[in-house]
Amino acid sequence: MALESLREVVRKITTSSSVDKYLVEEIVKDIQRALLRADVNVRLVKKISDSIKKRALSEDVLPTFNVREHIIKIVYEELMGGIGEGLDIPLKKSKIMLVGLQGSGKTTTTAKMAKYFKDKGLKTAVVAADTWRPAAYDQLKQLADSYAIGFYGKRDEKNAVKIVKNALKELKDYDMIIVDTAGRHALEEDLIEEMIQISKALMPDYKLLVLDAAIGQLASGQAKRFHEAIGIDGIVITKFDGTAKGGGALSAAREIGIPIAFIGSGEKVEDFERFDPAGFVSRLLGMGDIRALLEKVERVVSEEDLDPEAFLKGTFTLKDVYKQIEAMRKMGPLTKIIDMLPFGGMGLKLDDDVMETTQEKMQKFKYIMDSMTEEEITNPSIIDSSRIRRIAIGSGTSPQEVKELLKYYKTMKNLMKRMKKGKMGKLPIKGFPKLGF
Ligand SMILES: Nc1nc2c(ncn2[C@@H]2O[C@H](COP(=O)(O)OP(=O)(O)OP(=O)(O)O)[C@@H](O)[C@H]2O)c(=O)[nH]1
Ligand SMILES: [Mg+2]
Predict the structure, then answer these.
(1) Interior angle at CA 323, CA 321 and CA 324, nearest 5
(2) Which fold has domain 2-85+289-300?
(3) 40 C-alpha vs ligand 2 centroid, how far in Å?
């Protein structure tokens, strides 16, 4: 379902040539539907879709993007922001305590996680501290044995706190200790008390809440109660292999502000991975090529950030001028940026009037460049007077203004050349009169 609706979104974006309000509304509606179907709660859906709408309509399309990519980039970034980053558990001596509702997958997850850390080179052991379910001990011991993972438990001991205290003595030379606890049907008082006592005895570095992907909207309430009782550091979503998309668990995590640490996606011990926000977005919305898009977005975003060094390398084209202007626009007041530019730090002082004309001019330069062909942008020397006329008409400017941009470009290019040669001494400040430099 989600896949179909997102295909539809992409189709709409692809066949459209401009970012208009109607298109954005349509896209946002489709995304809302897909998210709601994946069990993401209404508040989170609203938050994500509001920011998509706002950004899609207000932000300029980056020079290296078309409209389609522009919108997908925003959609993607907002979804990623909505999902948040995962919890990264460093590979060092630590204790982890797992808690969760009955049948959520704690015991299975204990074994999965132990194998995960063992495979990463940590000496790992598990502790059977579920004294409520008679078969819990055997279930965990069997899993630990078959993967050569350390194990501590006491079959007939009814006091979970005692087990944990003994385990800490017995497992002193292990790096990673993972404790399985009894499942809570609902959060009964005695079980809450036991959970608190175990936590006090163990002093875990991480308390992870195990949530079934299928829990849906109930997740938030559950997570809150566990969080209030012992303070949760991260969430593990299990049964991701089923039909549920985990939107409920995700919403719960976001609502209480706790990162997701791992995802369990099958009954086998191997079916376990670190939480990967990009993968989660794809799963939520069924968008297969989102990773490739992400890579492109990352590349462009980092290219677009102003890096004076980069301007000194390679050829300087109008694209670089465009990037400079973009970066300036993003980075705020021009005066601040001057220090960061290759020709900055020269004690340049701009008064407000000059500042304003500069910003205005920059904007005009952008319009002009938007009317140029790719070839003209990368190789401005081909721009003759007939091209200048065409560009001026296309951008609603005058040939004089197009020439100004070309002059600005040439000046910058020469400047770059000189800087490259290390001749920083005489900077052609006078070369930028129209821009106020
Ligand atoms: N398909 C699938 N099944 C899972 C996954 N994780 C756990 N299960 C299954 O879910 C059931 C319950 O898992 P347990 O690990 O025993 O859950 P628990 O939270 O320890 O249960 P209690 O100790 O009774 O509270 C078992 O049949 C598991 O095989 C998963 O990621 N995918
Ligand atoms: Mg269990």
Answers:
(1) 65
(2) Four Helix Bundle (Hemerythrin (Met), subunit A) (1.20.120)
(3) 27
